[in-house]
Specification:
CATH superfamily: Nucleoside Triphosphate Pyrophosphohydrolase
CATH class: Alpha Beta
Strand content: 35-45%
Distance between the termini: 42 Å
Order of helices and strands: EEEEHEEEHEEH
Amino acid sequence: MSHQPVHVALAILHQEGQFLLQLRDNIPGIVYPGYWGLFGGHLEPGELPLETLQRELQEEITYEAKQVSEFGCFETPEVVRHVFNVPLTVEIGELVLHEGWDMGFWTPEDIRRGSRYSEKAGEVRPLGEPHQQIFLKFMAEGLF
C-alpha cells in the first residue's frame, strides 16, 4: 500500500514589505499546533489549488484575493504545498480571523529569526520550519 501525500494550498500574504501569518490553534493532534504559518488548507476532492486557496482565505480571514500568482510547489513525502503570491490589498482591521489563535504582520527579520511574540498567546511562538523555508526562498527572489 502506497502512502499518498496530502495536498494543501497556501498564501504568502504580503503588504508594504511585511507578511501576514496565522498562529495555529494550540490543539494537540493538529499539524504544528501553536506555530505560526501561512494561511490556507487542504484541497477538497476535485478542487484545484487556486480554488482551495480562495475558499480557505474566505473561511479563515474573510479575504477575497484579487491578485494571485503561483509561487511554487514544495513537496515532501507527506505534504505537497501549492504556494501562491497574494498581495494583501486591504487593511488588517478589515479581516476577521475565523480560524487560528492569532494573526499578525511579520518583518523579513522576524522570518529569518523564526519566531515572534503573539499578543493573544502572551508569548513568543515559533514559525513552522517548512513555512520559514518557503518564506526565505520567496524573499531571496525579491517577490514582495
